[in-house]
Amino acid sequence: MTKAASTRITPYGASDRAVSPTDAAALLGSLAPLLHDWLPRQRWFAGKGRPVTGFEPVTVTELRPAHPGDPSLLHLLVRVEQGAAGASASAGDCYQLLLGVREALPPHLAAARVGRAAQGPLAGLTVYEGLHDPRVAELLLERLRNPGSWGPLRFERARPIPAALSGKLLDAEQSNSSLVYGDARGEAVHGDAYILKILRRVFPGPHPDLELPLALAAEGCDRVPAPVAWFEADDPTGSDDTLTLGVLQPYLRGSRDGWQLALAALGADREFTSEARSLGRATAEVHLALAAALPTVTLGRAQTAQFADAMTARLDVAAQAVPALMPYVPGLRTAFDALAGLDEAARGRPAQRVHGDLHLGQALRTPDGRWSVIDFEGEPAIPLAERRRPQPPVRDVAGMLRSFDYAARSHEPWRADWATRCRAAFCEGYAQASGTDPRAEPELLRAYETDKAVYEVLYEARHRPDWLPVPMAAIRRLAGER
User: Fold this and answer.
1) What CATH number corresponds to the domain at position 447?
2) In terms of Cα–Cα distance, which of 305, 302, 375, 371 is closest to 337?
């Protein structure tokens, strides 16, 4: 199953930092039976539903070598093969793993257990998810506090980081992993606090979650926490690109995300229009700063038609997978046809870098009422190059409007009127800050909102069938059904 070498390797822990290709293959040979069972169960693993057929080591680094009585930490970039036997390894996704190794796990790490290795250089040792270990979290922060190279890894820092901060892994399910650094208990309550996002599925090229916040910080936009430090690796294929692996940013103490706030307002039968309006202003400020910091383009008729064709293709794929969509396909296609015809007069429209996956959960509100925008990764299922392409800003607007609908539908009884008022308030706030009301081009807004709702139907059908009625309600509205 695994391309493990049969050659003898140096004793575990004897190598320094970067592990040789031969030793890396042998180490992965020890880990492969454990990863085969553990990896597909992780929330951030993108290959669910397809059998894992093999592993290929990309890089293996000892962030902490083994010492008697102390845990060691392995940093791995592993390509996971899920194709037919004999398929090229380059077709597999590359994942970042941080694995601790101990002779035995203490009780507080029992839930982090990956398994006990039965073969190879790790035979008889227990492997666990290292990010659950506070000592591992402290080691990562120490590497970021003292920038430089560590084997194939490079640690960079934009400004000094205080010492004596403890880390704690966030237990929220997400497409990556995050450590919060704060006081001695690992709580972001007093003094400086930071959050380190560990990117799990990695791609060569500038990563939006580092690229865009850095650009916004240089532009002076304070709506996005500026990166404090990050680490990366060279693309092992030999290109000039890098692999972004982790980003450290300030942790906004006392903040609550927009989803939590919206549900609380619904539960208290309270309006949310004031918050929605100010969130619209914050979104517009981020868009204006992105347009100033990074190149913009003008989409002509051909480019707009390409966007419309891609939306239609996604609709056709979703309808084949979710038969409930079929009756609405003709009505939904009219939205994309209207988008394709918008630029028949060759007027063109601006496009720029955008957030790409904006919703209430990606906005944080501090106790003084100020909104910040986070998580610029974009939709993880979309290839990185596509996520970095300029888009009409209305894409982000449509994502947030759909999020208000989701909040309203999660409440019993369904508060469609509440969502309608929030959607209008958000657009009003956006227009106040940007000078452009997203509702001024209803065809454009409808197309992007329809595309988002189609994506939601496919996602919910595959992962959360109980939530399928939420996007289906929007589908009926967007298809023209009363």
Assistant:
1) 3.90.1200.10
2) 305
